[in-house]
Design brief:
The complex is a heterotrimer.
Chain A: H1 2-43, H2 46-50, H3 64-95, H4 99-112, H5 116-131, H6 136-161, H7 164-172, H8 177-205, H9 232-240, H10 245-276
Chain B: H1 3-18, E1 26-31, H2 36-50, E2 53-58, H3 61-70, E3 75-78, H4 84-94, E4 98-112, E5 122-123, H5 125-133, H6 142-146, E6 159-163, H7 168-180, H8 182-187, E7 200-202, H9 204-214, E8 218-223, H10 224-229, E9 233-234, E10 236-238, E11 244-245, H11 249-260, E12 283-291, H12 297-311, H13 328-339
Parallel strand pairs in B: 1-2, 1-3, 5-10, 6-7, 6-8
Antiparallel strand pairs in B: 3-12, 4-8, 4-9, 4-12, 10-11
Helix pairs in contact in B: 3-4, 12-13
Chain C: H1 13-18, H2 25-65, H3 67-73, H4 76-79, E1 83-84, E2 89-90, H5 93-124, H6 127-142, H7 145-172, H8 187-212, H9 215-223, H10 228-238, H11 240-256, H12 259-264, H13 282-289, H14 296-334
Antiparallel strand pairs in C: 1-2
Helix pairs in contact in C: 2-14, 3-14, 5-8, 5-11, 6-8, 7-8, 8-11, 8-14, 9-10, 11-14, 13-14
Classes of the chains: A mainly alpha, B alpha/beta, C mainly alpha.
Chain lengths: 280, 344, 335
């Protein structure tokens, strides 16, 4: 009896420890989120979204050019990454049950683990050096490469999740396979793929390292892809390590905007995929 | 098939954005963080005056030299003058010479965070060298106390902050240390990037100032503007004659006055540890690195226009932002160099 | 039944409708389908090949970019401790050391926590609790590195400087690991922040691995009278290799982390015994010095570091995926 009670106690302790782990693990999330929220919200004002940065040391100004810049960079990244990712995902789902497909799947997973700074170095070598200057294009290429693994994997998974009878019905009606995929399977999977795209966009929007020497930065308003461009993340980096209080305030505001957007995109992804598809 | 229209729309949207936002002339530059405070002011004012955009990224003098060498920017900036070898490199890679145009002078101050002590700490050259060498590790060390009789120094560890990137500010600072300390000369030497014996590194003048501002007991070296604008204390330093001098405009100008006699034509000179009892020992010029022969002549014209403005009206902004304006003789020499930039 | 030859004339609808067509439409349809199928299949194949070649392209570009330093320094690049841009002498050991130490520290902190959380989520918590908590943990993974860095500089580092380091100094100061001035910035800060960052990935993979183990094992243990904890222990030991794989994945992420690390690690290339001292990591040196690497050898050395990072993360990821895949496959097949 004693031994049994002792075992039960041990089990209780283990459960409590595990619960403690959860608290310790989740605590930083709340700390970071709420700290950023409080610091960021108090610093957010209309100026932040509409004004350009002021000269060094002067208070005021905003990050209008960085907000647009980040948007353009992510847009460019999507332009490169989405077609490649979706089409590769289609290949893997439809025709990929062969050794080559397995290798591609494997390499995609490997690619997702490559540090973003390394991708930045590659983008520097293949875009900045030949072009002879920094540009939004180079930043877009770096972000595109970073988006490819997520998009490929999600596309493949979502297509595979479409029930087989959709395909069988299409083929039974005499529709050629490619048309079945394109017109029936893909639209069905599209919702899931779109939310996977949102995840990839969320990741790309938060990247800093690869932009440091591809898109560089810009104190002025610029929407040209051949010129350096400002971005939210690089501004946060520049401002955060500076001593200027107004800059630090703006960095918190930018951080808040960033994680608000990323959390929102994640939430959408969760809602959509949970509703439709069983938990993995 | 609702994917394709989305993609097409995305393409069109990007192309629309890809069109130049306006017919404005844009020049890209990168380099020193030392003069970033005044450059950002200058470029902002000039933009409002003429509409021309000078996009300057403060990535450090090392970055400025590198990007000018690679030709990825239209102009650079550095407080470390290029060595002969670096000059050759630029000529080889870009097919044109690069000119050093001094814009302002500044003081590298030794800034510290000691709320108990106040902002009138005095540091001898031995003390500075010792702190940055790591041989003096505590604030109440005898060497520091010796020049600060009457002050109560805390028994705290000294947290040293220095640059982690290639820096002209580092170049000026280590140049001074090399001149005043044999131990520094042999152990570390001068340069834009050195093997720091001790301390935390961060990027840019902003980064070092950031550390000093955050960490009590810390000490670092930054350009005067960064210390003042952030209410950081900075020390009076012992100069060559043994006087303790605070970094003021006059002290910096005094240091430059000493250097005027031996000023070379290409304007590359160091004015640290200058003679003169009022000279501030860690003063320096900062230069804009401009190609003599730019391929794009419209940009060259814009550059020359800006430089002329900087030599004239621009100088009036210097004092407000804690830089020392250039002496008249130097401006004359600059005008000669600016005239040699090819605009046709 | 014979088809009247005159069917071709006029082709009036009723006549055609009544008789079976001479050429079955299936043939024509298949031909068009073949072309379409062919094009489509090869179009998608092309893009799959693009993904395939991307990895090799990256490796190749970095290799050719670092040829200079590879030829000059060879293996000594990894063992030399001098990083001197002025003398054009480059040894990457301090950065490798920094990366290894900060990642190891992160693992030491994160793995027990992660396994605890995974255990909780998969074995102990009821569904209404485990779903939201899983979600919260995944949200941690979504926070960008730069925001971690920002929070690190203004919240974590001051806390370490004013509370943790003095405390450790007082209590464990006799160990070389905890000696030195309380900078705040340094290896300890880097390890802590990396730990928070890799926690979600180790947790979610561990949880997946635990979930993949068939319920049969749990039921059998419970039937034999085991307590919750004892059952869990059995499951954990079955999942051992999967959890190891999850750890490798976390390590892979820690090794490649750039922004959060460079903002708190102190950026000084030294090898020091104390966790209080600043350090430098492979990723952070590239971030700090890439835009200003003046000489060709300097750039080449930095690219070589990127190459090393690339291979290390590739190997870690590949190993991890293989291990995790084999564990889940074992149990999926058994199911």
């Amino acid at each position: 009896m004693n031994s049994f009670r002792w075992r039960k106690i041990k089990s209780g302790i283990a459960t409590s420890l595990a619960a403690l782990c959860v608290l310790l693990a989740v605590a930083p999330l709340f700390m970071i989120f709420f700290y950023t929220l409080f610091q960021g919200i108090s610093a957010l004002n209309l100026d932040f979204f509409t004004q350009m940065p002021k000269p060094v040391g002067e208070t005021g100004g905003g990050m209008a050019n960085a907000l647009v810049g980040s948007g353009i960079l992510v847009g460019l990244g999507s332009l490169f990454g989405l077609p490649i990712g979706i089409l590769a995902g289609i290949y893997l789902a439809e025709y990929g049950d062969n050794p080559f497909g397995s290798i591609v799947r494997f390499l995609t997973d490997v690619l997702s683990g490559v540090p973003s700074i390394v991708v930045g170095v590659v983008a520097y070598i293949i875009v900045v050096l030949p072009m002879k200057h920094f540009s939004a294009l180079a930043g877009g290429v770096a972000l595109g490469i970073l988006m490819i693994p997520t998009v490929t994997r999600t596309s493949e998974e979502m297509i595979r999740l479409v029930p087989h009878y959709y395909r069988e019905a299409g083929l039974a009606l005499g529709i050629p396979q490619w048309k079945t995929t394109l017109r029936i399977i893909l639209p069905t999977a599209m919702k899931g793929i779109a939310t996977g795209i949102l995840l990839a966009i969320a990741r790309a929007a938060g990247e800093t390292a690869p932009l440091l020497f591809t898109a560089l930065g810009n104190r002025f308003w610029s929407t040209s892809i051949g010129q350096p461009i400002a971005s939210l993340t690089v501004f946060i980096y520049d401002y955060a390590k500076s001593p200027f209080e107004d800059w630090i305030r703006q960095a918190w505001a930018a951080a808040f905007v960033l994680i608000a957007m990323i959390f929102l995109l994640n939430l959408i992804f969760r809602i959509v995929t949970r509703g439709r598809y069983a938990e993995r | 098939m609702n994917r394709f229209p989305k993609i097409v729309l995305l393409l069109i949207a990007t192309c629309v954005f890809a069109l130049p936002s306006s017919a404005q002339l844009k020049l890209n530059g990168a380099g020193a963080t030392f003069p970033y405070v005044i450059y950002s002011k200058w470029f902002d004012v000039y933009h409002q005056k003429t509409g021309i955009e000078f996009n300057y990224q403060s990535i450090g003098s090392g970055g400025g030299i590198k990007q000018v060498t690679e030709g990825t920017v239209d102009f650079g900036a550095s407080d470390a003058a290029l060595t002969d070898e670096q000059l050759q490199n630029v000529k080889k890679k870009q097919g044109t010479e690069v000119l050093h145009i001094p814009t302002v002078m500044g003081a590298v101050v030794v800034t510290y965070n000691l709320p108990e002590v106040g902002n009138d700490l005095r540091l001898s050259s031995d003390a500075v060298a010792g702190i940055f060498l790591g041989t003096i590790t505590n604030w109440d060390d005898a060497k520091i106390a010796a020049s600060n009789r009457g002050k109560q120094l805390p028994d705290e560890a000294i947290i040293v902050a220095h640059r982690s990137d290639g820096s002209g500010t580092t170049n000026i600072f280590t140049d001074y240390l090399t001149k005043v300390s044999k131990e520094w000369e042999t152990k570390v030497g001068r340069g834009t990037s050195v093997n720091w014996p001790v301390g935390l590194g961060q990027k840019g003048n902003e980064g070092v100032a950031g550390i000093v501002k955050q960490a009590p007991g810390s000490i670092g070296y930054v350009e005067l503007a960064y210390a003042v604008k952030n209410n950081l204390s900075y020390a009076a330093l012992e100069n060559k004659t043994g006087n303790y001098v605070r970094p003021t405009f006059d002290a910096v100008s005094a240091a430059a006055a000493g250097a005027l006699k031996g000023m070379p034509e290409d304007l590359r000179v160091s004015i640290t540890n200058a003679d003169g009892k009022d000279s501030y020992p860690i003063s320096g010029f900062t230069w804009l690195l401009v190609y003599k022969n730019m391929k794009d002549k419209t940009k060259a014209k814009a550059m020359v226009g800006f430089l002329k403005w900087a030599m004239g009206e621009g100088q009036s902004y210097a004092k407000n932002l804690y830089y020392a304006p250039l002496p008249k003789e130097i401006i004359k020499m600059c005008d000669a160099r600016i005239a040699s930039i090819a605009i046709k | 039944m014979d088809i009247p030859a005159k069917l071709d004339n006029g082709r009036s609808g009723s006549e055609v409708a009544t008789a079976p067509p001479r050429t079955p439409p299936k043939k024509r349809g298949t031909f068009r389908g073949n072309v379409g199928d062919f094009v489509f299949k090869h179009l998608t194949l092309l893009f799959a090949v693009m993904v395939f070649s991307l990895v090799f392209l990256m490796a190749y570009e970095m290799y050719s970019g670092s040829r200079l330093s590879i030829e000059k320094f060879g293996l000594s690049f990894i063992t030399n401790t001098t990083w001197d841009p002025v003398q054009d002498e480059f040894g990457a050991l301090p950065f490798i050391f920094g990366t290894v130490v900060s990642s190891m520290l992160a693992l030491i902190i994160a793995v027990p926590l992660s396994v605890g959380v995974a255990m909780f989520l998969s074995e102990i918590a009821p569904i209404w609790l485990s779903r939201p908590v899983s979600y919260l943990v995944e949200l941690l993974a979504a926070i960008p590195s730069i925001v971690y860095g920002l929070w690190g500089i203004f919240v974590m580092v001051p806390w370490i400087r004013t509370s943790l380091e003095p405390f450790l100094s007082k209590t464990l100061g006799f160990i070389p690991l905890f000696r030195g001035a309380p900078y705040g910035f340094g290896m300890l800060a880097a390890g802590f922040i990396l730990a928070i960052m890799i926690l979600p990935i180790i947790t979610s993979i561990s949880r997946d691995v635990l979930k993949a183990i068939p319920n049969l094992q749990r039921e059998a243990a419970l039937a034999l009278g085991a307590t919750k904890w004892e059952t869990t222990r059995i499951i954990l030991s079955s999942a051992r290799s999967g959890i190891f794989g999850a750890t490798l994945l976390g390590l892979g992420r820690a090794v490649g982390e750039t922004m959060a690390v460079t903002m708190v690690i102190g950026n000084r290339p030294v090898i020091s015994a104390s966790l209080f001292d600043p350090g430098h990591s492979m990723a952070s040196v590239i971030a700090n010095e890439f835009t200003e690497a003046t000489s060709d050898m300097y750039v080449s050395s930095l690219i070589e570091i990127a190459l090393v990072l690339f291979f290390v993360t590739m190997v870690l990821n590949a190993l991890a995926r293989i291990i995790v895949w084999s564990v889940t496959r074992k149990y999926n097949v058994a199911k």
